[in-house]
Design brief:
InterPro entries: FAD-bd_oxidored_4_C (IPR004113), FAD-bd_PCMH (IPR016166), FAD-bd_PCMH-like_sf (IPR036318), FAD-bd_PCMH_sub1 (IPR016167), FAD-bd_PCMH_sub2 (IPR016169), FAD-linked_Oxase-like_C (IPR016164), FAD-oxidored/transferase_4 (IPR051264), Oxid_FAD_bind_N (IPR006094). The chain has about 475 residues and is an alpha+beta fold. Helix content is about 35%, strand content about 20%. It has a seven-stranded antiparallel beta sheet with strand order 15-12-14-13-17-18-16, with helices on both faces.
């Protein structure tokens, strides 16, 4: 492989071809530190042309490529396997915002741009890029699109796919496809853009994207609502959708145990209510007319819900600091659960109407088969996506509980399938779920996916061992 490494060095500069293990370690270690791969080298190009040159070199030498953005993924999709035969193609140096068109409400950014940088660039132009994730300070737009990231604003604005108008992609052959069109209508054949979005780098490398922007709202209001049950949350969602209409931006379900873990493990966190409730909803609205109008609107809505007995209590954030404090309770759930100990995570979706029944029946089955296990259930109820995580019983060893991971996964995923849902709502499949998905997708669907993979990556060099 000496000749391969030398050609890569010639293409992008020797200092951007990393082979020393002290330098490659961070690129080989996945975010949750469950697994570390072994890369032949880490390649750090600075332009689309350099990416194309590297892919062409990899094709000649038969070296497989693992594209990587911020490496914040949760399904082992952005690290190499242990063979030492793949290179990691880090896109972090492709971090330029190429253009902002405020008249067309679009922003074109390279794949290595941090999500937070794109949000800020949009804000500087008095616009909104609405994709919002807990990892927005470290994840990149290329990774967001490769996994079709969701986040907290899907209810109003959609997934990453819905926020993308065009792509620039380096194909598995080393060709550059320039599809950076800022068009909202383009009916000229197959939608190539949508093939690459959500493909997790298995069909080609996204190097840039043209993204949708929106007018910046004049006010964002955050409310935390206390509820008796998921059924009450579903009723509230239906009422909010009718009464608040398009101003409803986020609707996050939080079970009591989530709040308990955050208060227990995250410094400076406290219960916003004076008493405990079984469930909560973090609700956000955004308004484009006036903050005063928005406040009156949401207060009237909450008063009506309280009077009708649909909710038990509510707290309306009076300023940005209070709103951030409420959102901090939601955003720190995963960290708090990790601090509590090992757990079994599920990123699932079911029809919104089925969420209460799914939670009730799956909770019951888990109690029957794994007595005392604690379900840490939270997530984007407004779009049907739950993070349905399972922690061991308080008195049970985490190491003993994790031995049941396959059985717990099977129980939860079978329930998801029974409710006509998906075992991966927003994190992707990666290497973690590539075998599991074959239990739930039809043979025809899997064969169609393999046909696309074979057509676009006939030598199977792009992110091998992921998805299929």
């Amino acid at each position: 492989m000496n000749e391969f490494i030398q050609q890569c060095r010639n293409a992008i500069g020797a200092s951007y071809v990393l082979t020393d293990k002290d330098e490659t370690f961070a690129y080989e270690q996945e975010w949750r530190q469950r697994l570390r791969g072994n890369a032949l080298a880490v390649l750090r190009p600075a332009s689309t042309r350099e990416v194309a040159s590297l892919i062409s070199i990899c094709k000649v030498f038969g070296v497989s490529v693992v594209p990587q953005g911020g490496n914040t993924g949760l399904v082992l999709g952005s690290i190499p396997d242990s063979s030492g035969k793949s290179v990691v193609l880090s896109l972090r140096r492709l971090n330029n915002i190429r253009a902002i068109d405020t008249a067309n409400n679009t922003l074109t950014a390279e794949a290595g741009c941090l999500l937070s940088a794109i949000q800020q660039a949009a804000a500087n132009a008095d616009r909104l890029y609405p994709l919002s994730l807990a990892s927005e300070g470290s994840c990149t737009v290329g990774g967001n699109l490769s996994t079709n990231a969701g986040g907290t604003a899907v209810l109003r604005y959609g997934n990453a796919r819905d926020l993308c108008l065009g792509l620039e992609v380096v194909t598995a052959n080393g060709d550059i496809w320039d599809g950076l069109r800022g068009l909202r209508k383009d009916n000229t054949g197959y939608d190539l853009r949508d093939l690459f979005i959500g493909a997790e780098g298995t069909l080609g490398v996204i190097t840039a994207a043209t993204l949708k922007l929106y007018p910046a709202p004049v006010a964002n209001l955050t409310v935390m609502v206390a509820l008796e049950s998921p059924e009450a949350a579903l009723l509230l969602l239906n009422e909010a959708s009718k009464k608040l209409g398009p101003t409803l931006t986020g609707f996050e379900l939080i079970s009591r145990i989530c709040l308990q873990l955050v208060i227990k493990h995250i410094p400076h966190q406290s219960d916003p209510f004076t008493q405990q409730y079984p469930y909560y909803v973090l609700l956000e609205t955004s308004e484009h007319q006036s903050a005063e109008r928005a406040t009156v609107f949401i207060r009237d809505f909450l008063e009506a819900q309280l009077n009708q007995g649909h909710i038990l209590d509510a707290i309306l954030a009076e300023n940005i600091s209070q709103a951030n404090a409420l959102w901090s309770l939601r955003e720190n759930i995963s960290m708090a659960q990790a601090t509590e100990g090992k757990n079994i995570k599920h990123d699932i979706s079911v029809p919104i109407s089925s969420i209460p029944e799914f939670i009730a029946k799956t909770n019951q089955l888990l109690e029957q088969h794994f007595a005392g296990s604690r379900v840490v259930c939270f997530g984007h109820m407004g779009d049907g996506n739950l993070h349905y995580n399972v922690s061991p019983a308080a008195e049970q060893s985490a190491e003993v509980f994790i031995q049941n991971q396959e059985a717990v996964n099977r129980l939860v995923h079978d329930q998801v399938h029974l409710f006509h849902g998906s075992i991966s709502a927003e994190h992707g499949l990666g290497a973690l779920k590539k075998e599991e998905i074959q239990r739930y997708k039809s043979r025809i669907e899997m064969n169609l996916m393999r046909t696309i993979k074979q057509a676009l990556d006939p030598h199977h060099l792009m992110n091998p061992g992921k998805i299929i």
